[in-house]
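tool_log.txt
---
The assistant was asked to compare two proteins side by side. It first ran the structure predictor on the initial sequence, then on the second. Raw inputs and outputs are pasted verbatim so the downstream comparison step can read them without reformatting.
(1)
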Amino acid sequence: MKPRVFLLTTFVLLSTLACNLPFASPAEELTPTASPLVLATSLPTIAATQPSASSLPPPTTIPNQLPSATPEVQATVPPPAAPPVELHNPYAVVLVADNDVLNARRLPGSTHPVVGTLPPDATGLELTGKDAIVGDDRWVEIRLPTGGSGWVNAYYLTEQVASAAFCADPRLGQLVVNLRQAMLDGDGQLLSSLVSPTHGLDLLYLRTGNTANYSAAEASWIFQSDYVMDWGVHPASGLNVTGTFRETALPDLIDVMASTFQTQCNNPDLGGGNYVYTWPMQYRNINYLVLHKPGPPGNELAWRTWIAGIEYVAGQPYLFSLVHLFWEP
């Protein structure tokens, strides 16, 4: 398994913004079907606020049918997610590279013998209800597809939601409204309430670049952070793109969120790009919404798209990832 490198967070968060994660960070090895449904999103313009800069710890860096129209409603902050106390079977594997597997162990912990392996796109997994904390990691017992049971690191599991059920979830319209307002207002508290309490938010500014991962708590200060991220090599200039979230990714998020963008479910085929974008294997069991701003007449190549991966935690949809796409020469 390719390692996920976590940068140390030294900023002391207020207890009211603390994130109650049901799963711990990994220490173990470890698509949805496209829907033709289209949502044309037309929302009132909300003026973005410019937050004051402050010195804050960096995010974790990783090297390499919907309503016919979104209702014009006020963004609301949902209550913080409580740790799941019931099973939400089935589950699916997530965040495992395409050349890796998720190991199932005889007992919880990475030192125990492997009794089975699961591919990175495995689905239909059932938890028995047994779990254990080993170090900083949560382990859960699953029923193996080949028979018997085994223990896996819960970080590499996500609640499985069928594409049709996802695209018909009426709560997604409000999630998009809230995401839009959080970006335009620079509202970290609102954004934090949308981020997956299990896996945080993966932000990929360049599709072949580096990914920043923000926990739900870290997302609350993302608009004020002065941490300079190495986002990777720009496909046009060939130069490394570095900068804070506020000065690099946020303007392009606002560019889409302030427009009359189109929304599509589980289908990234928008924009007329000169490349074929494939949802990454490690995200294969995560459903997504495509937020697409078409290029203006006469400049059709000036389109921009953000793909929002959505994860379900205790049956509730949360923001899992944001991937930036645009025309590349």
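(2)
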Amino acid sequence: MAITVNQIAEQCGVSRTTVLRALNGGSVSKDTKERILQVAKDNNYRPNLLARSLNHGRTMSLGVVTINIENMYFVQSLNTINKEADKRGYFTNIVVCDDSLEWEKKLIQGLAERQMEGILINPINKGKEFEDFLLSLHVPVVCIGNQVSEKITTVQVNEMVATMDAVKHIVSKGYEKILFICPPLEMKEVKNTYTHEQRELGFRNAMGMYPDVNMHVIGKNEFLQEVQTVCKNNLDKRTAFLCSGDSYALMIMQWAAKEGYEIPKDFGLMGFDDISVLQYISPKLTTVSTNVEGVASTAVVELIQQIESEVYSPKSIYLNHKILDRDTL
């Protein structure tokens, strides 16, 4: 059985209050504190977090709802969220909605009922009804990427400007035709695809800036069929594919290798997000860094500030993006 605070106090010849102060970083003489911490360590003392929560009326827990754990973007985010929360004394309770609108709401409700002090989401639900649902929980919420409303804080990069910068970079390389690959647009009427819609808006704005460049949007899940058609029949002009996600670019790279195409000799390719797996891919994918770790870290900091502040105003926080010029353009 684990040693208790009272047993530590007895072994050290001090009061229970002194032990608690030492364990919680309070004011205790150096020698006494060192003695208490050593006894606690030698006897594998573990704090009773449930009792502490009941005493202080706080759980020190954050709920995190993620879409899936197959996409490296979400895996990177979760890793950063967990580290940042732990650094600030919070525990994370991570749940996966598996891209289900109904399940996402059920999980958020469950986290609120389990007394999470705040909830982080990259929402796939949208609209006034979902906004009202989140606000009715009376629990601090921060969105990562996909915005729900101005009444709920969102941390993101300026996706529209980032995409315009990506197009500018591709044009600077002499490409005459650019195809924007954005499969999530197929579901934009039903799901929250705010991030990808902003990227599409940036691409369409860029189309007006470069009238001499042939530009086209492919917004469906079966995009590889159109890529194949373009590569077999329409490579008369220097062509580049700009993908609204590195995972889509990697799918094109895999297909190209199988079909015998060389990148960037036969066509150019650019991704979005700079997921960590790119370090193992050759050729090195040119992409847009959307500051995955920075966004996740800032979201945690902002959520905790919301939790611990008596007065808080929701906001939209934009972090910097960066064009990473590598080997595929």
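---
observation on (2): The mean pLDDT is 92. The CA atoms of residues 49 and 59 lie 8 Å apart.
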